[in-house]
Amino acid sequence: xxxxxxxxxxxxxxxxxxxxxxxxxxxxxxxxxxxxxxxxxxxxxxxxxxxxxxxxxxxxxxxxxxxxxxxxxxxxxxxxxxxxxxxxxxxxxxxxxxxxxxxxxxxxxxxxxxxxxxxxxxxxxxxxxxxxxxxxxxxxxxxxxxxxxxxxxxxxxxxxxxxxxxxxxxxxxxxxxxxxxxxxxxxxxxxxxxxxxxxxxxxxxxxxxxxxxxxxxxxxxxxxxxxxxxxxxxxxxxxxxxxxxxxxxxxxxxxxxxxxxxxxxxxxxxxxxxxxxxxxxxxxxxxxxxxxxxxxxxxxxxxxxxxxxxxxxxxxxxxxxxxxxxxxxxxxxxxxxxxxxxxxxxxxxxxxxxxxxxxxxxxxxxxxxxxxxxxxxxxxxxxxxxxxxxxxxxxxxxxxxxxxxxxxxxxxxxxxxxxxxxxxxxxxxxxxxxxxxxxxxxxxxxxxxxxxxxxxxxxxxxxxxxxxxxxxxxxxxxxxxxxxxxxxxxxxxxxxxxxxxxxxxxxxxxxxxxxxxxxxxxxxxxxxxxxxxxxxxxxxxxxxxxxxxxxxxxxxxxxxxxxxxxxxxxxxxxxxxxxxxxxxxxxxxxxxxxxxxxxxxxxxxxxxxxxxxxxxxxxxxxxxxxxxxxxxxxxxxxxxxxxxxxxxxxxxxxxxxxxxxxxxxxxxxxxxxxxxxxxxxxxxxxxxxxxxxxxxxxxxxxxxxxxxxxxxxxxxxxxxxxxxxxxxxxxxxxxxxxxxxxxxx
Length: 745
Description:
Largest sheet: 7 strands, mixed
Radius of gyration: 30 Å
Distance between the termini: 46 Å
Oligomer: single chain
Structural class: alpha/beta
Shape: elongated
């Protein structure tokens, strides 16, 4: 937002409007800019939207997450009652949800409306990602045009080459992480803001102090009266003064809502107003300078320092929107709306700073294409304005739902929607006029992104529903007996499934086709819940699927949409500790004891990973890999360990310390509990295998043409070209067993 003075006046009056320039139109343009900044970023965002954060996280998906929790708008039926007990779950809820609300009942009755809401949110996310393409292009290109003002010899091609070099350098440095250069960001932005404030104040005093009269909205009326239809069309470019507002909301997770409000209202807003005021004062006396109004308005003695800081500020602004794009993609992926991509933590100390290589290089290619293809900030501005105002209008609609269902302030929701919806609707209608002159870019980008996200979410939902409706009957498992009708060999089998309740159909493939299976089975479900972060104390839910002799457990690992599962090598050990803790908890707490064996599945307990550090269930000792032969006894374990050591010798960086569990001497321990814990320890020493289904999803023959197109072509293509689930879950390749299965959805 702070770099928008580089191009707002130029974009507004360049072209057909340049022949109608007068002092009155400059006054009117500034009045429009001032009230746009006041009503949208200041009033709407600083005083309303920033207060609707989700546990400190912002953006369209944060608002959607609030609605999924408090109004039950989620389409993926993997939420449990235990999720509502998370400390972050009730965040932002002002009062109990009114289940009898007519609007709520209407939305619950019509599932298609919830699908429409999801598509609406995806369009907003697609537009924000489109901003990640357009912001670097317009910011860097606008900043380097200052060279053309000072050095008349430079032609358009040379400026384009310089802009492309800066853009390639910007994207190439993303893998280093924001934290390595972030210490420069604050000084650059601070110097830039006070530079434009000083230049604006100088221009007001030197050129035309009467410009302060333009604060009156009376000049807006005069502007439209004089310019007519051209004035309405120019709104699509005047709204560029508000660009970056949505990124401000999306980036609050890196700071706090209070700090963003304070910085904007006390520093950014007044500096921008004074700069636009000064630039308008300069233009009233220099109408011919509209082509490069910002750089022409800079006093000559400070021209080059301001040019340098303007270029640096453009890079910082671009960095901010690129970071916001990474965050949006991560949120989409966690909520099942984006294919699995590699997410890299770039800082060990600052949580939330991430880098996504695939997205970074796609953004770079698209940004270079836009820069080289348009070669003009006015054309890029047409595209940029449409993308920004679309996201703002979507945020207004989502905020209205938050006011209604989360804050329970329906009386405020309607005026909010009418007031801001009307203002943004007028801007949007003007921006749509420019679709043939560059506005088609964000529309096409958003359509492609929304198509990818919706097809992925649709396929994921269909696959989950197939698993849900084809669960293995618990009576069938109980009928097989504790041996499951096969040989139970030493070891732990971690069976990964997306089901939070029930046994997946793939389990029957193992039991009916394999002659032997592990003695201890743990069904692991790694799922995202609609909260930004899940604390370590609440991450694990442990339960039992069958009676004690079966040695079958369930572990649900919960992550928020901003959490990242780090490959720290502790998951396996934490899982064993959690199961051991559950076994002891079950023996002493009566709510886990019941005669009805069929009710075992579904009774879960939250096991804190932090309290496990001081748990007395097991004695934990660490040892180096070189000591493993002295600890493991079975030939199978030795074979697995020899293979693992060869694998790790090739990847030295993943070598880890091994953990050995022992049972403490406790005469008071129940014999059945002791036997179960001993079986768990012996199974751990024998080895752990990770078992996953390698699924192929196909549409049924009776499906419609569009469903076959979405599933057989779209979803299958995305699954083949994204990261595999085993890689995304950091499962060691040497211990992985995959079994193929076809899903006819």
